[in-house]
Please model this.
Amino acid sequence: MRSLNEFNCNNWKSKFYFIFLLRSLSRYDQKTQLRGVNSMEGLVTQIQGLSGTDSDVLSLQNLLKQADDSLHAESTRLLPFLDQLDPAKHSLGYLYFLEAFTAGPVTNEHASSSVLMIARFISSCVAEQIRLAPDKFISVCKRFKDQVLLLEEPLRGVAPMLTAIRKLQSSSEHLTALHPEFLLLCLLSKCYKTGLSILEEDIFEVDQPRDLFLFCYYGGMISIGHKRFRKALELLHNVVTAPMPTINAIAVEAFKKYILVSLIHNGQFPTNLPKYASSVAQRNLKNLCQPYIELANSYSNGKIADLETYVEANKDKFESDNNLGLVKQAVSSMYKRNIQRLTQTYLTLSLQDIANRVQLNSPKEAEMHVLQMIKDGEIYATINQKDGMVRFLEDPEQYKTCEMIERIDSSIQRLMTVSKKLNVMDELMSCDPLYLAKAGRERQRFDFDDFDNVPQRYNI
Model:
């Protein structure tokens, strides 16, 4: 057995070694922190000195790429250094520091100050500098969106996000990853009119397919909220007919709304998707949206009672999809469609006859529908209040007013611009090596003998 003195001696040595180890680790940690602070201070100095000319900014970009890992390692201690940088002068350097600083989780307490910091940066940053690091800028803006949603104040993010889009875009034809984020904020804040501002722009350049799906889906919902059903139908149509290797949830939800908006705007839903829709969409969308297909079939029968019965039986399904409001609008639109059918058959009808034929409860309700349709330009008619008779009229538009001529000219100019753009894209595609290789492989599947000879109209 060990003696008591030997045990105490060994125990004393262990305690001494443990204390020595703790002090060494503490000194090492202090040196590491000091080295990190010194390197960040040096980086700030270089950012301040290399943010003047374009060549300096390019050199700074390489330097910041090398320091990116260090910035993320020191993310919790970057706030004092951000105060030393001017976002309007040192936009690229500020972006790298801000992206690293906001990379961690943000609590409700810090979200408000972080939102102000990012909004100020978006407002004052130089577009040419932030475009050198688009992924960093997109990450910061998406975190900004998450934080305003965390604060349950989506309206605070609408204006800054629109500014971010304009600074990130290379042209108005460029769809960025921030477009869907902006439209989502507009939806949640019910700021539909602001969202419409970017929906009128023609898009020809897309970074990621998912951005296009979300842009058209959210855009369709904003157009629905603003009662612009023609535009909503166009955007939702783009989603369900876009190329897709596999079916996705965005396309399924868009197809449900596409059916409902088709009923509201056109009074019918086409049985088949266009031929240019992907085979995946052709095979799967109808099966995944069967209750909506059956709703469209019931709508086509023109019997309001049957339609209302079907809606009531499937109310829970439509409500769980957040489409019950649109379904009710579709049901209401059937009254309009039935009234429009009457204009094709009769010149005059009493309000009582209209109420009976359209299955409305009273002549007063029929009068309200007719007046609203006249106001919206859906029918042309006059109501004689004395005898309760409605006289249906022809469309008075003669297409010869200055306003109409300007609208026609504007449409022609836009079509010419789109046609020129398509010709340019067609030429670029015809020279693309990948496209030519695929076209060559497809051509081998066919034999020219399989095609009938085309008769020559002229002999040369």
Summary: The mean pLDDT is 85. The first helix runs from residue 4 to 49. The first strand starts at residue 174 and ends at 175. The radius of gyration is 33 Å.
